[in-house]
Amino acid sequence: MAPYESDDTTGAAQADDELRDELRAERRRKAARYVVPVAVVGVAAATIGLVPALADSGDPDLPKITAQELIDKIAKSDVQQLSGTVKISTDLGLPDLGGLESGLLSGATQGSGSGDGSSADPTGKLTELASGTHTLRVAADGPGKQKVSVLESGAEYSLIHNGTDVWGYDSKSDEVYHSTAPDSGKAGQHEAPATPKDFADQFLKSVDDTTSVTVDGTAQVAGRDAYRLVIKPRQSGTTVGAISIAVDAKTGTPLKFTLTPSSGGAAVVDAGYTQVSFAKPAASTFDFTPPKGAKVTEGDKAGRTEKGSGTQHRGKGPAAPGHGSAKDLGKSGFDVLGKGWNSIAVLDTGSKGGLPTDSASGGGDLSGFLGSLGDPVSGTFGKGTVFSTRLINALITDDGKVYVGAVDKAALVKAANAG
């Protein structure tokens, strides 16, 4: 027979059980207060540990290659057929003039004609790539067929080279520009940097003993394995910080081009494929017939726009900022001071009095307005004004000389003093 338990004993036992349950619950709550943070810290630590792995997951494991071998690979690249989408962002640090800066850039390349040229003329249209962010569709099929389309909000501008014909079409104004290429292998005088290869070709001309060139790992661009080629000036005083070129490991085609200034911050030029294919584009890609009712302006082989009884001269399309070498500048008719990245082009306009005035508008003075955009400087050369961007700077002296280069203000003043 089991021992008899009184009600008092039973009640005490129940109280003890309840107390023990409460203590156990409290211990669980205390444990939770410590365990939960530890778990969170553990997850955070694991996540932090994964960050490098995640960041590196897009960097393909490719065979080692030297900088010279990679430059040679670019030079030997013979891609004849491709199509894709390119995104270009350009930030020269120009002042916000409500769109006036684009007009000034465009006008600088179009000369001082009558102003009745076609809005579809590539010379002025492609200059707009010098500022802002743009999306381009590009295609090529050998040296005789290329197409570049600049996609705008609700509109599109296309430049098509097909054999001996060069067509420019601006859907916004419904205007067409037509000229004849000098031969089937060149698009004439309307070429402008539009792809990473265009920019890379421009700047690889500057590689000399004033330049450091290295291979900085690998990357993936538009789904393609690529090497990263980094170009840095060895000289001080230049506004160029570094140039990075992602080179397709298989074809040697530059897939992305980035130029950062020595002052830091966002890239001055960032151009890269977001999608690319090396398959043959459809032949219809390069077909063009002026839309019915579109205004068509004809140009000749020399790139002159024929309008009525007169002609309007057009210059070569805009080049990449700071492109080329001192030798190239010299061939362009400029005097050149300095070497390598510190090269400064010197032009004597023959116009005394410094900044121009707008005499055509009844004597209105532009010098005050232009002067407000620059910094006054002086030296043994006299007085002048320096106009600065994040890459290219220019000094206009009161005796009519212009000093331009990818150098800082001090270098321009020093060059003017020496000149």
What's a quick, concise take on this entry?
With 419 residues, this protein is α+β, with helices and mostly antiparallel strands. The chain has helices spanning 7-56, 67-76, 100-110, 122-125, 196-204, 326-331, 367-372, 409-418; strands at residues 81-90, 132-141, 145-152, 155-162, 165-170, 175-180, 211-221, 224-233, 240-248, 254-261, 269-277, 295-298, 305-307, 310-312, 335-337, 344-348, 375-379, 382-388, 393-397, 401-405. The strands form 3 sheets. A 12-stranded mixed sheet has the order 7-8-9-10-11-1-2-3-4-5-6-12, with helices on one face. A 6-stranded antiparallel sheet has the order 15-16-20-19-18-17. Strands 13-14 form a two-stranded antiparallel sheet.
List the helices and strands and how they pair.
Layout: H1 7-56, H2 67-76, E1 81-90, H3 100-110, H4 122-125, E2 132-141, E3 145-152, E4 155-162, E5 165-170, E6 175-180, H5 196-204, E7 211-221, E8 224-233, E9 240-248, E10 254-261, E11 269-277, E12 295-298, E13 305-307, E14 310-312, H6 326-331, E15 335-337, E16 344-348, H7 367-372, E17 375-379, E18 382-388, E19 393-397, E20 401-405, H8 409-418
Parallel strand pairs: 6-12
Antiparallel strand pairs: 1-2, 1-11, 2-3, 3-4, 4-5, 5-6, 7-8, 8-9, 9-10, 10-11, 13-14, 15-16, 16-20, 17-18, 18-19, 19-20
What does this structure look like?
By secondary structure, the chain is α+β, with helices and mostly antiparallel strands. It has two domains: 67-312, Lipoprotein localisation LolA/LolB/LppX (outer membrane lipoprotein receptor (LolB), chain A), CATH 2.50.20; 326-418, 2-Layer Sandwich (TATA-Binding Protein). 25% of the residues lie in helices and 32% in strands. It is built from eight helices and 20 strands. The strands form three sheets. A twelve-stranded mixed beta sheet has the order 7-8-9-10-11-1-2-3-4-5-6-12, covered by helices on one side. The chain has a six-stranded antiparallel beta sheet with strand order 15-16-20-19-18-17. It has a two-stranded antiparallel ribbon with strand order 13-14. The N and C termini lie far apart (123 Å). 32% of the residues are buried.
